[in-house]
Amino acid sequence: MRAVRIESNHKIDVIELPAPIAKDREIVVRPVACGICGTDLHICQHGFPGTNYPVTPGHEFAGHVVAAGREVKGIKEGDFVAVNPNVSCGACEWCKEGKPHLCNALTPIGVGRPGAAAEQVVVPGQNAHVVRESIGYGVAALIEPLACALHAVESSQGVRDRRVLVIGAGTMGLLTSIIARHHGAAEVTVIDPNQGKHPIAVDVGAHKVATPEQLGDERYEVVFEAAGAMPALRMALNHIRKTGVLVQVGVHNVEAIVEVNPFTIYEHELRIIGSNSLANQFPAAVDLMYDIAQPAGKLIGETYSVWDFGAAVQKMASSSAVKTQLRFD
Ligand SMILES: NC(=O)c1ccc[n+]([C@@H]2O[C@H](COP(=O)([O-])OP(=O)(O)OC[C@H]3O[C@@H](n4cnc5c(N)ncnc54)[C@H](O)[C@@H]3O)[C@@H](O)[C@H]2O)c1
Ligand SMILES: [Zn+2]
Ligand SMILES: [Zn+2]
Predict the structure, then answer these.
(1) Alcohol dehydrogenase-like C-terminal domain: from which residue to which, for each copy (predicted)?
(2) Ligand 1 within 6 A of 54 CB?
(3) 77: part of which helix (H) or strand (E)?
Protein backbone atom coordinates (compact mmCIF):
# COMPACT_ATOMS: atom_id res chain seq x y z
CA MET A 1 0.00 0.00 0.00
CA ARG A 2 1.00 3.61 -0.40
CA ALA A 3 1.76 5.65 2.73
CA VAL A 4 3.04 9.13 3.53
CA ARG A 5 6.24 8.93 5.52
CA ILE A 6 8.08 11.70 7.41
CA GLU A 7 11.73 10.97 8.18
CA SER A 8 13.59 12.28 11.25
CA ASN A 9 15.26 14.84 8.97
CA HIS A 10 11.67 16.01 8.18
CA LYS A 11 11.78 14.81 4.56
CA ILE A 12 8.29 13.85 3.38
CA ASP A 13 7.82 10.98 0.89
CA VAL A 14 5.09 8.71 -0.40
CA ILE A 15 6.42 5.17 -0.11
CA GLU A 16 5.23 1.61 -0.69
CA LEU A 17 4.74 -0.44 2.51
CA PRO A 18 3.26 -3.89 3.24
CA ALA A 19 -0.48 -3.55 4.04
CA PRO A 20 -1.02 -3.82 7.81
CA ILE A 21 -2.54 -7.00 9.28
CA ALA A 22 -4.96 -6.82 12.21
CA LYS A 23 -3.93 -8.74 15.34
CA ASP A 24 -6.71 -10.30 17.46
CA ARG A 25 -7.77 -7.02 19.12
CA GLU A 26 -7.06 -4.73 16.18
CA ILE A 27 -8.87 -3.52 13.09
CA VAL A 28 -7.62 -2.25 9.74
CA VAL A 29 -9.24 0.98 8.54
CA ARG A 30 -9.24 2.46 5.05
CA PRO A 31 -9.36 6.23 5.77
CA VAL A 32 -11.74 8.49 3.84
CA ALA A 33 -11.02 11.84 5.55
CA CYS A 34 -8.27 13.10 7.84
CA GLY A 35 -7.73 16.51 9.38
CA ILE A 36 -4.30 18.07 9.74
CA CYS A 37 -3.39 20.35 12.62
CA GLY A 38 -0.55 22.06 14.41
CA THR A 39 0.76 18.73 15.67
CA ASP A 40 1.35 17.60 12.07
CA LEU A 41 3.11 20.87 11.34
CA HIS A 42 5.43 20.30 14.33
CA ILE A 43 6.14 16.71 13.20
CA CYS A 44 7.03 17.99 9.73
CA GLN A 45 9.07 21.01 10.76
CA HIS A 46 10.97 20.55 14.03
CA GLY A 47 9.64 17.56 15.90
CA PHE A 48 6.87 16.94 18.44
CA PRO A 49 7.37 15.15 21.80
CA GLY A 50 6.74 11.40 21.44
CA THR A 51 7.17 11.24 17.65
CA ASN A 52 8.55 7.91 16.50
CA TYR A 53 10.34 8.70 13.21
CA PRO A 54 10.02 7.64 10.47
CA VAL A 55 6.29 8.16 10.98
CA THR A 56 3.15 8.09 8.87
CA PRO A 57 1.15 11.11 10.15
CA GLY A 58 -2.64 11.47 10.46
CA HIS A 59 -4.52 11.34 13.78
CA GLU A 60 -7.90 13.05 13.07
CA PHE A 61 -9.62 10.52 10.84
CA ALA A 62 -12.58 8.42 9.87
CA GLY A 63 -12.86 5.50 7.47
CA HIS A 64 -14.19 2.07 6.67
CA VAL A 65 -13.19 -1.12 8.45
CA VAL A 66 -11.59 -3.57 6.01
CA ALA A 67 -10.57 -6.25 8.53
CA ALA A 68 -11.28 -6.97 12.20
CA GLY A 69 -9.31 -9.26 14.54
CA ARG A 70 -10.96 -12.28 16.21
CA GLU A 71 -11.38 -10.65 19.61
CA VAL A 72 -12.78 -7.32 18.40
CA LYS A 73 -16.33 -6.80 19.65
CA GLY A 74 -19.03 -4.55 18.17
CA ILE A 75 -17.14 -3.64 14.98
CA LYS A 76 -17.16 -5.54 11.70
CA GLU A 77 -15.87 -5.25 8.17
CA GLY A 78 -17.65 -2.45 6.29
CA ASP A 79 -18.47 -0.35 9.36
CA PHE A 80 -17.78 3.38 9.19
CA VAL A 81 -15.69 4.46 12.18
CA ALA A 82 -14.03 7.49 13.72
CA VAL A 83 -10.87 6.69 15.65
CA ASN A 84 -9.58 7.93 19.02
CA PRO A 85 -5.85 8.28 18.30
CA ASN A 86 -4.75 7.98 21.94
CA VAL A 87 -3.43 4.44 22.32
CA SER A 88 -2.72 3.91 26.03
CA CYS A 89 -1.02 1.01 27.84
CA GLY A 90 -3.93 0.06 30.12
CA ALA A 91 -1.52 -0.85 32.94
CA CYS A 92 0.07 2.32 34.33
CA GLU A 93 -1.27 4.32 37.28
CA TRP A 94 -3.03 6.83 34.98
CA CYS A 95 -4.72 4.18 32.89
CA LYS A 96 -5.87 2.46 36.08
CA GLU A 97 -7.19 5.82 37.36
CA GLY A 98 -9.36 6.10 34.23
CA LYS A 99 -7.21 8.86 32.69
CA PRO A 100 -5.79 7.11 29.60
CA HIS A 101 -4.81 10.42 27.95
CA LEU A 102 -2.22 10.88 30.72
CA CYS A 103 -0.80 7.35 30.20
CA ASN A 104 2.93 7.06 30.92
CA ALA A 105 3.38 5.05 27.70
CA LEU A 106 0.97 6.86 25.36
CA THR A 107 1.67 6.10 21.67
CA PRO A 108 -0.75 8.27 19.68
CA ILE A 109 -1.70 7.12 16.20
CA GLY A 110 0.06 9.33 13.66
CA VAL A 111 2.71 10.39 16.19
CA GLY A 112 4.09 7.44 18.17
CA ARG A 113 2.73 4.82 15.73
CA PRO A 114 1.64 4.81 12.08
CA GLY A 115 -1.24 7.14 11.25
CA ALA A 116 -3.96 7.56 8.67
CA ALA A 117 -2.08 9.26 5.81
CA ALA A 118 -1.96 5.92 4.02
CA GLU A 119 -4.23 3.58 2.12
CA GLN A 120 -4.75 1.59 5.33
CA VAL A 121 -4.06 2.02 9.04
CA VAL A 122 -4.20 -0.55 11.85
CA VAL A 123 -5.72 0.56 15.19
CA PRO A 124 -6.84 -1.13 18.42
CA GLY A 125 -10.50 -2.13 18.05
CA GLN A 126 -11.38 -0.34 21.29
CA ASN A 127 -10.18 2.98 19.82
CA ALA A 128 -12.69 2.83 16.95
CA HIS A 129 -16.27 4.12 17.30
CA VAL A 130 -18.97 3.33 14.78
CA VAL A 131 -20.46 6.51 13.30
CA ARG A 132 -23.48 7.00 11.03
CA GLU A 133 -22.05 7.60 7.56
CA SER A 134 -24.77 10.15 6.82
CA ILE A 135 -22.93 12.63 9.05
CA GLY A 136 -20.39 13.13 6.24
CA TYR A 137 -16.75 12.10 5.96
CA GLY A 138 -15.22 15.48 6.76
CA VAL A 139 -17.47 16.02 9.78
CA ALA A 140 -16.63 12.52 11.09
CA ALA A 141 -12.94 13.45 10.91
CA LEU A 142 -13.72 16.46 13.16
CA ILE A 143 -14.84 14.20 16.01
CA GLU A 144 -11.29 13.95 17.40
CA PRO A 145 -10.76 17.72 17.81
CA LEU A 146 -14.37 17.98 19.03
CA ALA A 147 -13.54 15.45 21.77
CA CYS A 148 -10.58 17.65 22.81
CA ALA A 149 -12.82 20.73 22.91
CA LEU A 150 -15.44 18.78 24.87
CA HIS A 151 -12.82 17.80 27.45
CA ALA A 152 -11.90 21.49 27.74
CA VAL A 153 -15.53 22.52 28.28
CA GLU A 154 -16.08 19.69 30.79
CA SER A 155 -12.88 20.78 32.59
CA SER A 156 -14.39 24.25 33.12
CA GLN A 157 -16.97 22.59 35.38
CA GLY A 158 -19.84 24.13 33.53
CA VAL A 159 -20.63 26.93 31.10
CA ARG A 160 -24.44 27.00 31.45
CA ASP A 161 -25.72 30.55 32.05
CA ARG A 162 -22.14 31.78 32.25
CA ARG A 163 -20.36 34.41 30.18
CA VAL A 164 -17.61 32.73 28.21
CA LEU A 165 -14.49 34.20 26.58
CA VAL A 166 -12.77 32.10 23.91
CA ILE A 167 -9.32 33.34 22.88
CA GLY A 168 -8.38 32.02 19.43
CA ALA A 169 -10.78 31.37 16.53
CA GLY A 170 -9.05 28.27 15.16
CA THR A 171 -10.48 24.76 15.19
CA MET A 172 -10.15 24.42 18.96
CA GLY A 173 -11.57 27.84 19.82
CA LEU A 174 -14.51 27.55 17.44
CA LEU A 175 -15.41 23.99 18.45
CA THR A 176 -15.25 25.16 22.07
CA SER A 177 -17.56 28.07 21.17
CA ILE A 178 -20.03 25.74 19.45
CA ILE A 179 -20.11 23.44 22.49
CA ALA A 180 -20.43 26.38 24.89
CA ARG A 181 -23.49 27.61 23.01
CA HIS A 182 -24.90 24.08 22.82
CA HIS A 183 -24.39 23.72 26.60
CA GLY A 184 -26.33 26.91 27.29
CA ALA A 185 -23.66 29.55 27.90
CA ALA A 186 -25.24 32.96 28.51
CA GLU A 187 -22.84 34.64 26.08
CA VAL A 188 -19.84 33.56 24.02
CA THR A 189 -17.22 36.14 22.99
CA VAL A 190 -14.45 35.06 20.60
CA ILE A 191 -11.16 36.94 20.25
CA ASP A 192 -8.76 36.64 17.33
CA PRO A 193 -6.33 39.20 15.87
CA ASN A 194 -6.94 37.67 12.43
CA GLN A 195 -10.12 39.42 11.31
CA GLY A 196 -10.41 36.92 8.48
CA LYS A 197 -11.59 34.45 11.15
CA HIS A 198 -14.33 36.75 12.52
CA PRO A 199 -17.14 35.99 10.03
CA ILE A 200 -16.91 32.24 10.60
CA ALA A 201 -16.92 32.75 14.38
CA VAL A 202 -20.23 34.62 14.01
CA ASP A 203 -21.49 32.01 11.56
CA VAL A 204 -20.96 29.19 14.09
CA GLY A 205 -22.80 31.09 16.81
CA ALA A 206 -20.47 33.42 18.71
CA HIS A 207 -22.47 36.35 20.19
CA LYS A 208 -19.53 38.74 19.92
CA VAL A 209 -16.25 38.63 18.00
CA ALA A 210 -13.38 41.07 18.46
CA THR A 211 -9.68 41.63 18.02
CA PRO A 212 -7.55 41.72 21.22
CA GLU A 213 -7.47 45.54 20.99
CA GLN A 214 -11.27 45.72 20.88
CA LEU A 215 -11.84 43.56 23.96
CA GLY A 216 -11.88 46.31 26.61
CA ASP A 217 -11.65 45.40 30.29
CA GLU A 218 -14.64 43.12 30.77
CA ARG A 219 -14.19 39.96 32.80
CA TYR A 220 -15.70 36.54 32.17
CA GLU A 221 -16.71 33.59 34.30
CA VAL A 222 -15.08 31.05 31.98
CA VAL A 223 -12.06 31.84 29.79
CA PHE A 224 -10.57 29.40 27.29
CA GLU A 225 -7.03 30.10 26.03
CA ALA A 226 -7.27 28.30 22.69
CA ALA A 227 -4.54 30.12 20.76
CA GLY A 228 -1.35 28.73 22.25
CA ALA A 229 0.26 32.19 22.12
CA MET A 230 1.81 34.15 24.99
CA PRO A 231 -0.18 37.36 24.37
CA ALA A 232 -3.33 35.24 24.40
CA LEU A 233 -2.45 33.71 27.76
CA ARG A 234 -1.62 37.12 29.27
CA MET A 235 -4.94 38.41 28.02
CA ALA A 236 -6.72 35.37 29.44
CA LEU A 237 -5.25 35.95 32.90
CA ASN A 238 -6.46 39.56 32.86
CA HIS A 239 -10.06 38.77 31.95
CA ILE A 240 -11.13 36.19 34.52
CA ARG A 241 -13.98 37.36 36.71
CA LYS A 242 -13.79 36.78 40.49
CA THR A 243 -14.35 33.05 41.21
CA GLY A 244 -13.90 32.39 37.48
CA VAL A 245 -11.90 29.74 35.69
CA LEU A 246 -9.24 29.78 32.98
CA VAL A 247 -8.97 26.60 30.92
CA GLN A 248 -5.58 26.25 29.22
CA VAL A 249 -6.25 24.52 25.88
CA GLY A 250 -3.46 26.02 23.77
CA VAL A 251 -0.16 24.15 23.71
CA HIS A 252 2.80 26.41 24.42
CA ASN A 253 6.49 25.87 23.89
CA VAL A 254 7.70 23.50 26.67
CA GLU A 255 10.07 26.17 28.04
CA ALA A 256 7.58 29.07 28.02
CA ILE A 257 7.07 30.90 31.33
CA VAL A 258 4.41 33.51 32.08
CA GLU A 259 4.17 35.82 35.08
CA VAL A 260 1.02 35.55 37.19
CA ASN A 261 -0.01 37.62 40.17
CA PRO A 262 -0.63 35.20 43.05
CA PHE A 263 -2.34 37.91 45.08
CA THR A 264 -5.04 38.18 42.40
CA ILE A 265 -5.44 34.41 42.28
CA TYR A 266 -6.00 34.49 46.05
CA GLU A 267 -8.11 37.62 46.18
CA HIS A 268 -10.33 36.73 43.22
CA GLU A 269 -10.49 33.01 44.03
CA LEU A 270 -9.40 32.13 40.49
CA ARG A 271 -9.00 28.63 39.11
CA ILE A 272 -6.50 27.76 36.35
CA ILE A 273 -7.05 24.36 34.78
CA GLY A 274 -5.15 22.51 32.05
CA SER A 275 -6.99 20.44 29.45
CA ASN A 276 -4.87 17.80 27.71
CA SER A 277 -6.32 16.12 24.61
CA LEU A 278 -9.58 14.25 24.84
CA ALA A 279 -9.61 12.21 28.09
CA ASN A 280 -12.62 9.86 27.90
CA GLN A 281 -14.73 12.18 25.77
CA PHE A 282 -14.56 10.39 22.40
CA PRO A 283 -17.90 8.50 22.70
CA ALA A 284 -19.62 11.67 23.98
CA ALA A 285 -18.12 13.62 21.06
CA VAL A 286 -19.59 11.11 18.59
CA ASP A 287 -23.06 11.67 20.08
CA LEU A 288 -22.61 15.43 20.27
CA MET A 289 -21.49 15.62 16.64
CA TYR A 290 -24.92 14.42 15.46
CA ASP A 291 -26.37 17.57 17.09
CA ILE A 292 -23.78 20.10 15.95
CA ALA A 293 -22.68 18.68 12.58
CA GLN A 294 -24.09 21.69 10.75
CA PRO A 295 -22.02 24.44 12.45
CA ALA A 296 -19.00 22.13 12.89
CA GLY A 297 -18.97 21.34 9.16
CA LYS A 298 -18.52 25.05 8.43
CA LEU A 299 -14.98 24.83 9.85
CA ILE A 300 -13.81 22.57 7.03
CA GLY A 301 -11.80 24.66 4.59
CA GLU A 302 -9.52 23.39 1.88
CA THR A 303 -9.04 19.70 1.15
CA TYR A 304 -5.95 18.15 -0.43
CA SER A 305 -5.13 14.71 -1.71
CA VAL A 306 -3.36 12.72 1.01
CA TRP A 307 -0.50 12.18 -1.47
CA ASP A 308 0.11 15.95 -1.43
CA PHE A 309 0.61 15.87 2.34
CA GLY A 310 3.67 18.14 2.37
CA ALA A 311 1.96 20.81 0.28
CA ALA A 312 -1.20 20.54 2.40
CA VAL A 313 0.73 21.16 5.62
CA GLN A 314 2.62 24.08 4.08
CA LYS A 315 -0.57 25.68 2.77
CA MET A 316 -2.37 25.08 6.08
CA ALA A 317 0.34 27.06 7.86
CA SER A 318 -0.32 30.11 5.66
CA SER A 319 -4.07 29.69 5.19
CA SER A 320 -6.88 31.70 6.75
CA ALA A 321 -9.14 28.64 6.55
CA VAL A 322 -9.94 26.94 9.86
CA LYS A 323 -9.58 23.17 9.28
CA THR A 324 -7.60 21.71 6.40
CA GLN A 325 -8.37 18.08 5.58
CA LEU A 326 -6.98 15.27 3.43
CA ARG A 327 -9.08 13.25 1.02
CA PHE A 328 -8.26 9.78 -0.23
CA ASP A 329 -9.74 9.56 -3.76
N1 LIG B 1 -5.61 20.84 24.65
C2 LIG B 1 -5.82 20.09 23.59
O3 LIG B 1 -6.28 19.00 23.70
C4 LIG B 1 -5.50 20.61 22.22
C5 LIG B 1 -5.95 19.92 21.07
C6 LIG B 1 -5.66 20.44 19.81
C7 LIG B 1 -4.93 21.61 19.71
N8 LIG B 1 -4.49 22.23 20.85
C9 LIG B 1 -3.75 23.49 20.82
O10 LIG B 1 -4.71 24.53 20.83
C11 LIG B 1 -4.19 25.67 20.14
C12 LIG B 1 -5.15 26.03 19.03
O13 LIG B 1 -5.25 24.95 18.10
P14 LIG B 1 -6.01 25.17 16.70
O15 LIG B 1 -5.96 23.87 16.01
O16 LIG B 1 -7.32 25.83 16.94
O17 LIG B 1 -4.98 26.19 16.02
P18 LIG B 1 -5.24 27.30 14.90
O19 LIG B 1 -3.90 27.69 14.44
O20 LIG B 1 -6.24 26.79 13.93
O21 LIG B 1 -5.92 28.52 15.69
C22 LIG B 1 -5.24 29.36 16.55
C23 LIG B 1 -5.89 30.73 16.43
O24 LIG B 1 -5.37 31.57 17.48
C25 LIG B 1 -5.27 32.86 16.93
N26 LIG B 1 -4.37 33.69 17.76
C27 LIG B 1 -3.04 33.86 17.66
N28 LIG B 1 -2.62 34.75 18.59
C29 LIG B 1 -3.72 35.15 19.26
C30 LIG B 1 -3.95 36.07 20.33
N31 LIG B 1 -2.95 36.73 20.89
N32 LIG B 1 -5.20 36.24 20.76
C33 LIG B 1 -6.23 35.57 20.21
N34 LIG B 1 -6.07 34.68 19.21
C35 LIG B 1 -4.83 34.48 18.74
C36 LIG B 1 -4.79 32.65 15.51
O37 LIG B 1 -5.06 33.79 14.69
C38 LIG B 1 -5.62 31.44 15.10
O39 LIG B 1 -6.85 31.83 14.51
C40 LIG B 1 -2.80 25.25 19.65
O41 LIG B 1 -1.85 25.69 20.60
C42 LIG B 1 -2.88 23.74 19.62
O43 LIG B 1 -1.60 23.15 19.75
C44 LIG B 1 -4.78 21.75 22.07
ZN1 LIG C 1 -4.86 17.29 15.76
ZN1 LIG D 1 -0.95 3.71 30.69
Answers:
(1) 172-289
(2) no
(3) none
